[in-house]
Specification:
With about 325 residues, the chain is of the alpha+beta class. The protein has 4 domains: about 60 residues, Winged helix-like DNA-binding domain superfamily/Winged helix DNA-binding domain (Arc Repressor Mutant, subunit A); about 50 residues, no CATH class; about 80 residues, SH3 type barrels; about 80 residues, Alpha-Beta Plaits (2-Layer Sandwich), CATH 3.30.70. Helices cover about 40% and strands about 25% of the residues. It contains 11 helices and 12 strands. A hairpin with a 5-residue loop joins β2 and β3. α2 packs across α3, α4 runs antiparallel to α5 and α10 packs across α11. The longest helix has 17 residues. It is elongated. It starts with a helix and ends with a helix. About 20% of the residues are buried. GO terms for molecular function: DNA-binding transcription factor activity.
Length: about 325
């Protein structure tokens, strides 16, 4: 690629970021004089790219609104960012492996050999400390419909499959979307229950925008609501423990999905749900603070058994 051709393409790359650019600013970024910038803009117009011009002392150029750009051009750093983003997203379960894999393959096919080789080396040697997540991606149309409804604040009618297998329709006022641990969730006012509920998007088989409007309650935190809901899943046991720790320190150590933390006399009261009390005992034993079990009594026995096992393992 000749140097002038590369600069013409560089001008197109600048213009496709959007908005007006003065001739002087373009000249500075391209390292040419203003007359050359005007010549490059003419070259783009000759190629059928609608470059809008504004005359005068502060005249400049922009791409005409509505123009569909040719295939995207990436700098080396941008190409690396796209490739890593796709790999990391797939690892986190953010998208289905088929879609992220095909997108990554398309990016690699259009890269120059030099850049492609460097990215291949990076992807072949890079590893992640976080364990891979099993993806549960929703349908793209469901995700985008709910996102638009949450942004524009209009209700949707959804078809939802409950965990027990029952299906039904309900009207939802979506307050926000949250991605957590490989799954997408939507929180909002549910017409069927009259309450704010959280739904998994991979269980929503259809979403349709309907007429209406709503307001999101002041201070509503979609991520906090989802985590609080996950922490209150009705597992077999409710565990209440008084932690001898400052509230701020407890919140830094324990994510909201673990349970509810409330300041109390002598420390912080942790209320959580657990399917197995031996698992709850091991989690509590790993905390750096002293604590008092308020309920259930069976948890005290699990902690005694765990303490005896640890002492035995240590040779006491």
């Amino acid at each position: 690629m000749t140097r002038p051709t590369a600069r013409v393409l560089a001008l197109l790359e600048i213009l496709q970021t959007g908005g007006w650019f003065t001739v002087g600013s373009l000249a500075g970024r391209l390292g040419v004089d203003e007359r050359t910038v005007r010549r490059y803009a003419t070259h783009l117009t000759d190629l059928g790219i609608p470059v809008g011009a504004r005359r005068g002392r502060y005249g400049g150029y922009r791409l005409s609104p509505g123009f569909k750009l040719p295939p995207l051009m990436f700098t080396d750093d941008e190409a690396i960012a796209v490739a890593l983003g796709l790999v990391a997203g797939q690892r986190m379960g953010l998208g289905g492996p088929a879609h992220t894999g095909s997108a990554l393959a398309k990016v690699r096919r259009v890269l120059p050999d030099a850049v492609s080789g460097r990215i291949e080396s990076l992807l072949a040697t890079a590893d992640f400390t976080a364990l891979p997540r099993q993806a549960a991606p929703p349908g793209s149309e469901v995700l985008l419909t709910l996102a638009a409804a949450a942004r524009d604040r209009h209700p949707v009618r959804i078809a939802y499959t409950a965990w027990a297998g029952g299906t039904g329709q309900r009207v939802l006022e979506p307050y926000g979307l949250v991605f957590h641990s490989g799954r997408w969730y939507v929180s909002g006012h549910d017409s069927a229950s009259g309450e704010v509920r959280t739904f998994r998007l991979d269980r929503i088989t259809d979403a349709e925008s309907i007429e209406g409007a709503f307001e999101v309650p002041d201070g509503f935190d979609p991520a906090g609501h989802v985590l609080a809901g996950l922490a209150s899943v009705p597992y077999a046991h409710e565990v209440v423990v008084l932690l001898r720790a400052p509230l701020a320190e407890a919140r830094r150590r324990l994510p909201r999905v673990v349970g509810e933390l409330v300041e109390a006399d002598g420390g912080v009261r942790l209320t959580m749900r657990a399917e197995r009390l031996d698992g709850a005992a091991r989690m509590l034993a790993g905390l750096p603070w002293r604590f008092t079990v308020e309920r259930p009594d069976e948890l005290r026995m699990e902690l005694r058994d765990l303490a005896a096992q640890l002492l035995d393992d240590a040779g006491y």
